[in-house]
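Intended use. Records like the one below are meant for learning the mapping from a protein sequence to its folded structure. Do not use them to infer anything beyond what is encoded.
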Amino acid sequence: MGHSLCGLILKGPYHSSQAQAYDLHGVALGFDLTLFPINSAYTIYWQHHERVMGLLNGPVVDCAIFPRERVLAVLMARITAIENPLFAILLTDYFGGQGQQWAQVYQGELCVDPAIARINAALDYLGVRPAVGQDAFDAIGLGLYRRQPTYLDVYAERCEALGL
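Structure written out for the chain above:
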Protein backbone atom coordinates (compact mmCIF):
# COMPACT_ATOMS: atom_id res chain seq x y z
CA MET A 1 0.00 0.00 0.00
CA GLY A 2 1.24 3.49 -0.83
CA HIS A 3 1.90 6.43 1.41
CA SER A 4 1.42 9.91 -0.02
CA LEU A 5 1.10 12.73 2.47
CA CYS A 6 1.82 16.44 2.28
CA GLY A 7 1.29 18.68 5.26
CA LEU A 8 2.34 21.16 7.85
CA ILE A 9 3.09 20.06 11.39
CA LEU A 10 2.66 22.88 13.87
CA LYS A 11 4.27 22.90 17.30
CA GLY A 12 2.00 24.43 19.93
CA PRO A 13 -1.53 25.74 20.14
CA TYR A 14 -3.58 27.40 17.42
CA HIS A 15 -6.99 29.00 17.08
CA SER A 16 -9.32 26.54 15.37
CA SER A 17 -11.65 29.29 14.08
CA GLN A 18 -8.71 30.95 12.35
CA ALA A 19 -7.55 27.62 10.94
CA GLN A 20 -11.03 26.94 9.57
CA ALA A 21 -10.97 30.31 7.81
CA TYR A 22 -8.05 28.95 5.76
CA ASP A 23 -9.54 25.45 5.35
CA LEU A 24 -6.86 23.99 7.62
CA HIS A 25 -8.19 20.90 9.34
CA GLY A 26 -5.97 20.03 12.28
CA VAL A 27 -5.23 16.48 13.37
CA ALA A 28 -3.76 16.21 16.88
CA LEU A 29 -0.65 14.02 16.85
CA GLY A 30 0.50 14.21 20.48
CA PHE A 31 3.73 15.88 21.62
CA ASP A 32 1.89 19.23 21.24
CA LEU A 33 1.88 18.78 17.45
CA THR A 34 -0.91 19.23 14.92
CA LEU A 35 -0.92 18.00 11.33
CA PHE A 36 -2.58 20.16 8.68
CA PRO A 37 -2.83 18.29 5.36
CA ILE A 38 -2.18 20.51 2.35
CA ASN A 39 -1.15 20.02 -1.27
CA SER A 40 0.52 22.13 -3.94
CA ALA A 41 -2.80 23.38 -5.32
CA TYR A 42 -3.87 24.46 -1.81
CA THR A 43 -0.63 26.40 -1.43
CA ILE A 44 -0.87 28.04 -4.87
CA TYR A 45 -4.49 29.03 -4.27
CA TRP A 46 -3.82 30.66 -0.89
CA GLN A 47 -0.68 32.35 -2.19
CA HIS A 48 -2.80 33.96 -4.88
CA HIS A 49 -5.77 34.66 -2.59
CA GLU A 50 -3.65 36.33 0.13
CA ARG A 51 -1.23 37.95 -2.33
CA VAL A 52 1.77 36.60 -0.47
CA MET A 53 4.37 35.77 -3.08
CA GLY A 54 7.81 34.25 -2.83
CA LEU A 55 9.42 31.20 -1.33
CA LEU A 56 10.62 30.38 2.14
CA ASN A 57 14.37 30.29 2.56
CA GLY A 58 16.20 27.04 2.97
CA PRO A 59 17.77 24.43 0.77
CA VAL A 60 16.19 23.59 -2.55
CA VAL A 61 14.35 20.29 -2.27
CA ASP A 62 14.71 17.74 -5.07
CA CYS A 63 10.94 17.44 -5.43
CA ALA A 64 8.93 19.71 -7.72
CA ILE A 65 5.75 19.50 -5.62
CA PHE A 66 7.33 20.19 -2.20
CA PRO A 67 5.54 23.33 -0.95
CA ARG A 68 7.94 26.16 -0.02
CA GLU A 69 5.74 29.19 -0.53
CA ARG A 70 5.96 32.04 2.02
CA VAL A 71 2.20 31.99 2.42
CA LEU A 72 2.55 28.85 4.56
CA ALA A 73 4.49 30.75 7.23
CA VAL A 74 1.97 33.59 7.02
CA LEU A 75 -0.95 31.18 7.53
CA MET A 76 0.78 29.51 10.49
CA ALA A 77 1.38 32.93 12.07
CA ARG A 78 -2.24 33.91 11.55
CA ILE A 79 -3.74 30.76 13.08
CA THR A 80 -1.41 30.87 16.09
CA ALA A 81 -1.25 34.65 16.62
CA ILE A 82 2.51 34.11 17.04
CA GLU A 83 4.86 36.12 14.84
CA ASN A 84 7.27 33.23 14.23
CA PRO A 85 5.61 29.89 14.98
CA LEU A 86 7.59 26.66 14.83
CA PHE A 87 6.40 24.24 12.14
CA ALA A 88 7.59 21.66 9.66
CA ILE A 89 6.63 21.03 6.07
CA LEU A 90 6.64 17.38 5.07
CA LEU A 91 5.96 15.28 2.00
CA THR A 92 6.02 11.51 1.49
CA ASP A 93 5.74 9.50 -1.70
CA TYR A 94 6.01 5.74 -1.17
CA PHE A 95 4.54 2.75 -2.92
CA GLY A 96 5.47 -0.86 -2.24
CA GLY A 97 8.23 0.18 0.12
CA GLN A 98 9.96 2.30 -2.52
CA GLY A 99 9.89 6.07 -2.53
CA GLN A 100 11.09 9.22 -0.89
CA GLN A 101 10.31 11.73 1.83
CA TRP A 102 11.20 15.35 2.41
CA ALA A 103 10.94 17.73 5.35
CA GLN A 104 12.07 21.16 6.45
CA VAL A 105 11.53 22.96 9.76
CA TYR A 106 10.77 26.67 10.00
CA GLN A 107 10.54 29.26 12.74
CA GLY A 108 8.36 31.76 10.94
CA GLU A 109 9.95 32.22 7.52
CA LEU A 110 13.42 31.05 8.56
CA CYS A 111 14.66 27.52 7.98
CA VAL A 112 15.98 26.45 11.39
CA ASP A 113 18.56 23.96 10.09
CA PRO A 114 19.26 23.34 6.39
CA ALA A 115 20.63 19.88 7.28
CA ILE A 116 17.16 18.70 8.33
CA ALA A 117 15.79 17.04 5.21
CA ARG A 118 13.92 13.97 6.47
CA ILE A 119 10.75 13.62 8.51
CA ASN A 120 12.21 11.89 11.58
CA ALA A 121 14.86 14.60 11.92
CA ALA A 122 12.17 17.28 11.65
CA LEU A 123 10.01 15.54 14.25
CA ASP A 124 13.00 15.21 16.57
CA TYR A 125 13.55 18.96 16.29
CA LEU A 126 9.86 19.50 17.10
CA GLY A 127 10.25 17.48 20.30
CA VAL A 128 9.00 13.99 19.44
CA ARG A 129 10.64 11.43 21.72
CA PRO A 130 9.60 7.95 20.57
CA ALA A 131 9.41 4.90 22.79
CA VAL A 132 12.11 2.25 22.49
CA GLY A 133 11.68 0.37 19.22
CA GLN A 134 9.78 3.21 17.51
CA ASP A 135 10.84 6.04 15.31
CA ALA A 136 9.33 9.52 15.52
CA PHE A 137 7.16 8.93 12.42
CA ASP A 138 5.49 5.95 14.14
CA ALA A 139 5.35 7.63 17.55
CA ILE A 140 2.93 10.28 16.25
CA GLY A 141 1.03 7.88 14.00
CA LEU A 142 1.87 9.37 10.62
CA GLY A 143 1.65 5.89 9.11
CA LEU A 144 -2.13 6.07 9.63
CA TYR A 145 -2.43 8.92 7.12
CA ARG A 146 -1.66 7.28 3.79
CA ARG A 147 -3.33 9.66 1.35
CA GLN A 148 -4.53 13.20 1.19
CA PRO A 149 -8.05 14.03 2.36
CA THR A 150 -10.56 14.53 -0.44
CA TYR A 151 -11.53 18.03 0.74
CA LEU A 152 -8.25 19.23 -0.79
CA ASP A 153 -9.40 18.18 -4.29
CA VAL A 154 -11.32 21.44 -4.70
CA TYR A 155 -8.07 23.42 -4.78
CA ALA A 156 -6.99 22.02 -8.15
CA GLU A 157 -10.36 23.13 -9.54
CA ARG A 158 -10.05 26.58 -7.96
CA CYS A 159 -6.54 27.03 -9.37
CA GLU A 160 -7.72 25.95 -12.82
CA ALA A 161 -10.68 28.37 -12.68
CA LEU A 162 -8.28 31.20 -11.78
CA GLY A 163 -5.81 30.22 -14.50
CA LEU A 164 -3.08 29.43 -11.99
